[in-house]
Fold these 3 entries.
Entry 1:
Amino acid sequence: MNSSKTQFAELQQTDELEQTWKEPKGFLGSLAVVGHKEIGKRYIVTAFIFLLLGGLEALLMRLQLAFPENTFLDPGRYNQIFTTHGTTMMFLFAVPVMEGMGIYLVPLMVGTRNVAFPRLNAFGYWMYLAGGLFLYAGTFFHALPDAGWFAYPPLSGPQFSPGKGVDVWAQMITFTEVSALCVAVELIVTILRMRAPGMTLNRIPMFCWSMLVQSFMIIFAMPAVMIASSVMLLNDRTIGTHFVNPAEGGDPLLYQHIFWFFGHPEVYIIFLPALGMVSSMIETFSRRHLFGYPALVLALVANGFLAFGLWVHHMFATGLPQVGEAYFTAASMMIAITSGVQIFCWLATLCTGRLRTTTALHFVFGFIFIFVLGGLTGVMVASIPFDLQAHDTYFVVAHFHYVLIGGALFPLFGGFHYWFPKFTGRLMDERLGKCSFWILFVGFNLTFFPMHFLGLGGMPRRVYTYSAGMGWELPNLLATVGALTIAVGGIVFIANVMRSRRHGEIADPNPWEGASLEWEAASPPKSYNFPRLPAVDNLWPAWDDISKRTVIEGLSDDRREILITSLNAAEPHHRHTLPKPSIWPFVTTLGLGIGLTGSVIAFSWYYVAAALGAIGFIGWFWPRRPLEFTS
Amino acid sequence: MTEARVLYVGHLPDQEVSNHGPLWFGQVLLCCIEGMMLCMLIAIYFYLRLGVDVWPPPGTQLPSTPVPTLALIPLLLSIVPTYIASAGAKRNSRVLMLAGLAGNLLFAAVFLGFRYLEWRSFNFTWQTDAHGTIVWSILFLHTFDLVADLVMTFVLLVIIAIGRYGPKQRTGVHVDSVVWYFLVAIWLPLYAVIYWGPHVVGAGR
């Protein structure tokens, strides 16, 4: 009798929570959504669409390069395609997809109900979407960039890149970086101030640690690229400033310095969350505690710091003073230490665990294999004499695809299989999953391994064709066959997602027996994540007896109240009410989007952006009755 | 679930207006971002300086220091009303908030007046040469930040004046003061670089 009463009370409570936290429906409602799960999913789906576009661009390039003196693409079109491919993959796929995973998973992992700034989160997504559409809209206005994904002047300057393509590229950066910065700010605050009571710093799940370090890196790296692209490059092109004009005291190399001060950390911004995913998956599928948690955390943090001291290794061929270059060689090689520590911790966990060889773990093994190879070529190109030979050849192309696809994409695919039941409530098909893994793994190596030899054989990157008789025919043909194989793997993966979403096996909350808090929420989680917020007393809460879980009481259910905890010890500090859904982040993006789009034509459009943006922000901030301003 | 242990938090304060709130933290991070942008511009300033023998190049007047130095007085004084506004926000005192926000706007307006005067005295634009480009970029970005914050300060003043406020808006007043402290503090190195830099590192003049 007593227990049925309690059950009734709990049902009533979850009903009320659902009323409070549910997201608005309908078209207008969908523009006002602020829930982290919905926005995280939007990031992930949008980013995968851009991955598809970037992948198609890669296929076009490979088709062109399959045979010597091929005429499938003309040189101008080829330049546009490799530029858009790199830009899409770096700015519109890799960073946003990691942000999306973080937005979805971090609040669940730290045991709260949303990110710290839900409306900022919505705003970030809209800015990202606007930036992606802006770049691709260039296709219809003959305004596709064609100066490479890092747009070096003087090639990208007004003299050698007339037209609006480079301007569109430069301002697209503004959109996507604003988005990344928004996510970074809200994830840092979420991780540092909204953790479940008892989740001290040394009980934060590895994935959250990786998002925390990544977010701090974004805060210190992304401003540099905004300076490089929208202050230096764009203003030189539109209003005649002289940042990179040597005739008036400017310097094109300065652009490279500023760009790579961002560009190198960018690589780790993409790759650190992937490391966090690998740690999560290895712990779960080894069915034991992660070996060397403190060492892994310290390696991540060290990686974050070192990332800012490496940028010159992208510029070894520019003739900088040798003493400086030697420093950057040493710093670059130190990355092997932090990466090595992580690899050995994972291997130790895997060797001493009882493995469950799921699809996700296959991708982890694929990651270790490919990433170690990429790391080895990384140590090679960190050495100046070697780099001067390999610079701007296909050797570098091979290296960074091994590092980025191996280091970020394989863990991401693994993570996608791993968390898919959390996202959708259904498991992905394991047989199809393993099938897609093997096709992707073979296809990847077939595509990029021959490129090492192409590079050593002297084939420069970014050439639209090559003559016969250079000995480059076979590796190029193999690479193209490999690219088509990757496409097949991609199709199998998509088919698996589509099929599993509707017909996959129903998943319970913790299908893999994972250790972190997201596995305590329902699959898929309710709008409020947890009926009652949990408190934890170790690093593996979901491995404890759930019926003995300490839960939080005393938070209002009729408004979006969450608990703020202290930074180190995660002791309860005060209650805090998160905002309700709002259309204003969307409206603000619209205003800023109009102004920033115009700014590629004339500087004065910045004032339009400022005015419309201000209207948006004021509307956003304007107090509404009743909850927001009663005390 | 019935045996679950319970941690009761209902007695804790809600919507605290202090440096412990998430918004304060977020605002500090936004200041880090903006600070990083301005620091990059300082780095660019010195990089461009290294590229030429004479700085600023011949024909460009040395920046005069009296007006910008005088302008520091209202700028530094503006911290006082800003502090009053944030103290008012914490104590929920409407009078202190109104006086503080209005004082902030007033001193800032005087400072911007001085800045207008010094801009008029320049004999170079961003199109003149690399020196002009970087000086105007720093000034433009910092002025843009100032004006953006003043618009928000004005909006807060209106909100407090018409009485449509609660803890959320008071938190707004409090973090608005954080931005202003930041903009004042970051101006000191920028001022030193733009106006004293050429006197100190501008060899050949």
Note: Chain B has a mean pLDDT of 92.
Entry 2:
Amino acid sequence: MNETLKEAKELDKKYDLLITINENEERGKPIVVKDNICTQGLRTTAGSKILNNYTPVFDATVISKLKKAGFYTLAKTAQDEFGFGTFSTNCAYKTPKNPNDVERSCGGSSGGTAGYIKASKLVSYGLGQSTGGSISCPAAFCGVVGLTPTYGLVSRYGLIDYANSFDKIGPITKTVKQSAEILNIISGFDGKDPTTISKPAEDYTQYCSKDVKGYKIGVMKQFFSKDVPEEIRKSLWDAIKKLENKGVKYEEINLPLQDYVVPVYYLLATAESSTNLAKYCGLRYGLTKDLEGHYNEFFSQVREEGLGKEAKRRVLLGTFIRMVGYRNAYYLKALKIRTKMIQEYKKIFKKFDALIGPTMPVLSPKFTEIEKLTPVQNYLMDASTIPPNLTGMPAMSIPVNKKGLPIGMQIIADHFQEGKLISLGSAYES
Amino acid sequence: MEVNEETVRHIAKLARIKLDEKEVEQFKKDLSSILELFSKIENVETSDEFTIQPVESNNKLREDKVEESLSEEEIFKNTKHKEEEFFKGPKIK
Amino acid sequence: MKVKIGLEIHVQLNTKSKLFCSCSTDYKKPNNKVCETCLGMPGSKPRLNQEAVIKALKLAIALNCEIQDKMIFSRKTYFYPDLSKNYQITQLEYPLAFKGVLKLKKKEIRIRRIQVEEDPAGLQHKSTCVLIDYNRSGIPLVEIVTDPDFESVEEVKEFIDKLTTILDYLGMHDPSNFTLRADVNVNLEGHPRVEIKNMTGTKNIEKALNFEIVRQKIILESNQMSMQQTMHYDAKTSSTIASRTKETEEDYGYIFDPDIPVIKLDKNLINEVKEKMPELPQQRIERFIKDYDMKEQDAYVITIEKATADVFEELSKEFDNDYLLKWMVGPLRKVLNYNNLKLVQTGMSKEHMLKLLKLMKEETLTPRTGEFVLRELVVKPDDPEKIMKKLGFEGVEKKELTKVIEEVLTNNKKAIEDYKHGEKKALQFLIGHVIRETKGQADAKEVAKLITKKIG
């Protein structure tokens, strides 16, 4: 058995990071992939019991591209079921443990990938996926780099949908440069996903050495409130000062409509996901049972058994707000607010090159603490990572401390300005 | 906003998810509190403009060309519910 | 008692590939033209077929609709084994077009909306299970919704026939592979509406409507209360049957489909399509009346099928128009109807038809024998002369026939006398003689005509 495979089994045993390991001893560069990205011939579950025996017959576009660039999928990583969660505690298979402290969460929903990249000595490249912050959050909690690209930059073909107008696939790596390398490979227009954008290709690695002198940064004031632990605020300000020494200018700003980002996000994301999950009913693939009884009974029982509690909660919620009588006040209203938010953020980026703030308002919580959170408290945890996901703008989380539990700095830029994220991130790193 | 058991059962039926009484009670509480959180959005002034995808795509539509379909092996790979060349499902009548 | 009927018609668009994937629309074995998209596999994404949009646009233009400036697809979510995603991609708030009109002979029918959507899979019901064929899943459909402007089943039939002709002229109709499905709303004026869902084919629609109208009348006449309800048509018993209310209680929870970008229908595109529109049936009728001096009724009949009108125009260049027209609206239409075939479904070429016409014009074939040859030609196309010989109609040339008649008349002077004295049987006798002499080849009517002409 080769070293990489050996390490994978060890890390999985130690930290419960992987759902499926690719036992084939492949050649090339290993990458660990979140389990909601389809890998042909290799089991893909999206962290859910309802897909526990599902083997895709096609590769996601990002996987095909990575293969062409010499990568192979080493393992499929643990995640919150379908992406529903902030702590990867909603995985039907195993709950990944933070390598920095095994009593704490890796963050979510791409917890398995982030945890693996942190713990591994041999693998530096991973794929995560974000709907409301699922790349940034685990990157922050585990202490690695996570890059959430602009919506439409990377093909979603082969990504098992959570919310189609929010989902993005992005790299989770040890360094900023590695994220830029992966972005080079996976980005670009794909005919199989009509929501991808046609634009001239870029070499994102060139931004690693770009001078950030003169960059104007907006410091997101609302994320530095007294409720946020002192060490997070301190680490962030130290990071901002470091960037200031490199010639960056900053100004504190208030994000517009911040009170509404959590409700608008959850309204739209659950509306979309409740329709995306309708297909899981025991026909043609996935968890099933014997064909006894009437089809309504059959569907209901398969879904009852195969979907976890959070998945059920979100499907019920999403179904409710799409109903006649509620649809206008909830679903359609949220769509209109989304327009307003994008317009407001576009205005901000006319003035600033990027926005900076703590990725998460807390340090990685203990599993015992997470258990006590109500659904609403859970959802409010996403308040800082949701804004760029709602507006489709790119974001990066980069670790800004070396001691203690990891703390992530979130950098947000305008649509297709990944280059600025990479420049700033690299500038901080160096 | 208050959601009652009746509503939860109705939604569960629409979504084809079987719930026991305990779950109905639990989800009733959950949904009520979540919708409470959501209700504040009515305060936001909006125009009629709405956004479906946050970034507008700029592509042409797909050309009407036939491409190879999946093989028999591939389409039935993930299920045992098959009869000859048909997929099998639970009865309707 | 006035009847009000509204239609929701689903027509399959004859694109090469499906609406949201590149699987072929030409399938033979069950489940052999399916892919991850039309099977609803996780991770698959819909890719809209441009040609489907163009075809739907052409139909909307032909029905005089107001084309919208943008079109948005929606998800209609409900659970049923024929939906591969348990939602159908269709259109709600932003369909392709609104407000069109189709003129019938005596009134106008208003088209409320036209939308594009995907077809579900095909189901076969068994006692313990259902068999599903996803070949049909994802086939592009156009849904045409009318206002409840119909007041009779005849009007409904006329509408469907006219719609079929328009589709034919737009190149969107293959008679050997044409399915028209419809839901209808029908009520007696002032009384609740009944919806009959999911009927296939004109005949079933007519039968269902006829049955339902009578059913509602009976209820009313016996002073009972009629109910608003949903029904389906049972072809076996030719009756409408109430559907279980369960099936109709769904809240479809529509959202805009976030996988499909908004489709802009800008003026340039619409004008481009308008300019490339083929001649429509009404325009052709008007042109035939003007250019060929045709009667309206003939023009109407001959343009019902585009192929027939095409053949007329081509053959009219080298054949007597009046004769040609008479034959096409007469014997040709009769034989095609009898065989329940459209002209395109026969293998008959215009060369075949031209030859047959020539043989008839020069009286090598009589109208009677000509029709026999036509019947054969329609089901087994071949050189009409070959068919003529095969059927034993060597044909009697006029010259020869005249000779035979003269001979018979010369040899049967008494019969001529008898006929002149009012004995009708004498004529039959003479005709019989002639036919015997021509070994049965001569046409009785023809002979009678020639004899009476000769003897006065």
Note: Chain B touches chain A through 54 residues (CB under 8 Å).
Entry 3:
Amino acid sequence: MLNVTGEHSRRPPKLFSVGEAGRYSREELVQTFVPTDTYRQLLTIGNQIILGSRGSGKTTLTKMLAHEYMAASDDRDIKDLIAERTFLGIYVATGTSWVGALRNKGWLEDSPEAEHEFQWRVNLSVCFSFLRTLRSCIATYCPEEQKYELERDIVTEIREVWGCPRNPVSSLDDLHRCLRSIEGTGRSHSGLGDSTNVEQAKGGSVFDRDLFMPLLHAMEVADSLLSLPETPHWVLCIDEAEFLTTTHHRILNSYMRSGASKLCFKITTLPYHHADCETNLGVPIVPTDDFDYVYIDKDPVMAYSNKRPEESGARCPDFVTSMFHKRASASNYEFEHISLHALLGDSLLLDEPSGFADTEFLAELQSLATEKTYERAQRLYQESRPEYYDQIKRKLSGAILLKKRLMEQRPGSKLDIYSGEKMFIRCSDYSPRRIVQLLGSLLEAIDYQLPTEQESAETPFIKEVVQNEVLEIFSERTLKRAQSVRGVGPLRAGRVGRNLYTLLKLVGRYMKQRFREEKLTTDPIFSIEVPSNVPPGFARLVKIAVAYGFLYPHVKEKDPDPLPRIGEEKAALHFAYALAPYFQLNPRRGKGRNLLSVLGQNHAERLGRGEDDQLQLFGLEGAI
Amino acid sequence: MNDFRVIDIEFQDLHDEYNAILVCWSDEPRCTSVAQRVFRKAFKKCLMLRDCTLSSDAGPGSETTLRKLFPKLKSLSLPRDDPSLLIANLNGIAKADGEQLNILVDYSSMPRLWYAAILRWAQTFAGEKRVELDLAYTISDYISEQNFRPLELEDIPAIPGCDGVLDDSNVPILGIFGLGFDGIAASEVLEELEPSTVYAYLADPVPFPEYAERARRENQEILNAQKLLLPLPLCSIRTVYGYLSELAVLSKSTHQVKLIPMGPKPHVVAAILVALRFEDVACLHVAGRREKPESGEPTDKAIVTRVQIRKPSEEVQQRMLRYGRAVI
Amino acid sequence: MDEIRIAVISDLHVGGARSKDLCPYATAGCEVNGSCPYKTKKCVEADFLDRFEQFANEKDLEADYLLILGDATQAGQPDEVYLVCEVIERLRESLGIASERVAFIPGNHDVDWEVLSILDHSGVRFEQRFEPIAYPKWRLKKWMSRSKPKNWLLTVPPYLTVWQDQSIVMVGYNSAWADRDSADVHHGQVDEKHVEELEKWLNDNQKGHERYWVFLTHYHPIQYDNEFPETPDFSIMNGKVRSLLDLLYHKEFDIFLHGHKHRPFLNAPIMHGHPLLVLGAGSFSAPPDMRWDGRNPNSFHIVTLRGRKPLFDSGECAFGEVRSWAYYRPEGWIPSQRGWGIRFKEPFGTYLSHDDLKRQLCSTIEESVSKSGKAIWSSMVAEEQDFAFVMRDDLDKVLQDLCSEKGWSIMRKDEDFIVLPGKDAERDR
């Protein structure tokens, strides 16, 4: 076996353990980036609000829209755009501590002072980021021998519009220091309630005036001196907007509604965290007119579906395979001969059931499925084999196998059923963060000892039992993380974690019990339906579950706003596939079960056992 | 730009007279331990802070005990997240005669934002007088895993006055995590902050050796992510302050430095001192609630730290700037 | 003259240092079981020396001499002195330095504090204070006095010694001779008689400047910036400091090396028409101490002397560079930065007045700009080698003035920079 790390590593290599894009250097991000159709959809001039659950890749996508990242990429389309100068992205993140600092000022959220402070901070932040983009533009578009003069000329103009002193500001580094100095003088002595000095210090500064004005001025300078085209080309990519409050969103919405056409926006946020479309102008922004929603979470079932491959936004399974190979390459693993399939093999639950003879299958179906399902299977078997196969055998082979394994499992023995390439991809929910974490866990399980070319012919290289254990631990960890989730931005209000954890456990246990006790049908137990009349607190909890990737909505493809309006209309959602191993479920989408019925039933059972305290916390009585 | 001197002392090194003592009433048994050791000293003012959300009947650490020890006790009821009344009282204390203010603070049971506000006030006020804070902390018994309830995360703001620099998306973040038992919350913070570099520290050595082992166990994700793990003693805030300062100072020209102290209170104090001292370093407060607050029995061990704060004159500050005081 | 490299460290404080491998008392649990004699010390690390060796190996560092400028121990105890000998052996080996080229000067912590704490009016205990560091069977004694005039030892009056070979003369003075552990403030002391003895020796033995002349002592001779003037810094040398400095300047010593203040410092004050490069080495391994706004990381330096060159109208001075590293726990030894006390690479040797330097630079830059539209520093240095040895702070001040007056722009790139005519100048025309 190859020991590619040379010795036993006690910690996993970064590219196979760190799923958060913010922790990668630019080089690492560019090296490991896999361009998808969704990404290419963003490479257009136009306002877009990018919705994706935690870990779905929003930060990676938006960073890869920034000029300095695009300029480092080898992708042909990206290189063409860079050469044409028609897409100049500026990346800025409005993260948790950014917004936290705003709250520390002690002003009321909707007060003029708070809005003013927000505007000042946004102006400063985007200008910091603009300098980075500018540096990249100069490096890309200017001949080597003229770079310094061009930088000098641009800086000379920009320092005038930003109000920086003439000396010693003559380089981009000097401009950066100047912005730091402006930030320093504007920093208040808050926490003790004294903000008067701040206003005096900031008064009169261009950063204090209209939103984005300093950026627009600087952009004009760059346009002129870099000979940029007349058509709109500047793109401001605002990441992590979920932390912004409703007021902040309205300020940004107002700009999108009425702002200069020179600047378009790509704003990322969690699902249900784009507070609303209201503006301060009395007229809301309108999807498709003023902006488009782009929802980036992909259902691996749809993406991997043999039926509708053209609907795959990620060219699955190439996406996952590409992720694996790019990371392995960047980590200096030798792997050309290794595919994920070689490592993981087929999935007993999800792949075509090659070893399951029809007679055996029908016999099992008779004992484990409902009578109706069995009769239908028999009929189709007689009348149309393709339909029998597609509608019955394909859907139920895995469920039968799982049920049997669970029934036959002896205490202390280990399952092997959660294994295979397809299972691995399914349980990642197509979330890049989960994919990386799972890849890391799998490699760690084999101590990073990858197979040689000869060994890789024996598929799977990683034993099913080992894969199963990895997925179970991953699944449990994913569920436990729900305890520390909190509501942010427009969904911020008190504690959430324990209630969310309780909700998931109740639903998961319900599904687990139904699967074990009920006869099988072709409709798997993996989805829920949230009625339109749920209490607002409960609706908020469900939205947070979606935002953090514990529940996934069945999106409305043709709707400008693809997400169902939870609490206002009936909404169907499926459990995260990542939770399937923990609750021993078959990870297949199905029709939703009414959530209130699910909980009602559970409620009855739990009441019988005297465990009603969690239900109160759970909020059915409106306690959330 | 202040000079902080942080000195580890013992109870016998405490002064005989203070301008004020600040204690905090709570339902933790140890909230009266320090008071019982120092009540014979002379305090011009005695302030008892109480969380206005706590019931007056909760716990054995009662107001009666404190009032017996300090007949002049004045009670201040405050919300956990708003210390402005406390600050107003400190301003009143500061009007005392003399060039130096000596204040004794028992922060064993004090909410973080309160003792942070006291430190912040001392730093802001220090230009007018020399301020000496003696901070006392009673170590309580180790809390077993069965009795420990994990933190439900609510927010991750910067402690007021410890905001650090404006977040610059282009400057990588250095997250320095102080490890406690709330590994899940720590992992959530790690995911939200997305630091490009992670350092970690934990209390070791501690009076309870199993503490360090458990902190390691609970924080596997942080440990997998860290480039440096420092064991720092519980009982020496000076040492912790020194090492955290060194990490911060030598990194802040290339990173946004964010301290995330989630371990024992003395380590939190050290982190706050670092962030107050170096204004481009942030100290975050991982805020949340527990179903059942930790409350062990007090031991006879205490950690006492003297913080002396002085502010150079304007002229000297200008001269110090020549040596390139670093701001990112 | 030969080029030589001098490795300089100070204030190791073995016994009270930041790492257990620099502590003779370290045992399992020593932080909590009360066995540590220094109750306020808390060792956090254990591999400081290993990391230094790794650093020296990775960077291929070598030097010709190793100088230790005092406070090698925490309290002059035998166990500490013994360990110091081991530590210095490891350090010199990792730098490829011969044992006979190691020199050590005692500091205020290198006196035996235990002995001095014994009640004694006779003065005997005071006489015994140097016994551990001067123990004849240990190498430290040799490193204190390898070559000397007759009767000169650092532990007896006149507390002077000399190390010399064909390249260098190093005069060492034990300015901690008068210090006691019980002193409220530890300050160095310079006695008039000691200065006279030194002067006499120099008059007899200094024949020209074919070798480098270096002075070593523990305490600093000049007042550093003190941010709290109401509590002045008493820890500089007291006594006949002025006389000593006058002597060193008159005798055209090249470098003055000292420790004591745990803050690295470099400057070249000029007196009597001669520059004296003063290097305060800071502390090599004391625990982190965050006074002075963080400008005092643990430090290690290599002074490279490349030769002597003409100075002003007559005379000569040494030129070369000082390289400094700071210790940063996560990464080990990293190049130092100006904000921490000293830049990584600091040249010295060209000492022009501000106006003279400004005139020369201005002329060179204008000439270059008129030819090629810009002036590149590396090209300027290639043409005029003297520029290479201008101290960076002086250079920065002059450039700032010039840019302000002429409207020039400076674009920095790593260690190089480019001066461009300002766009303002074009616009104003």
Note: Chain B touches chain C through 44 residues (CB under 8 Å).
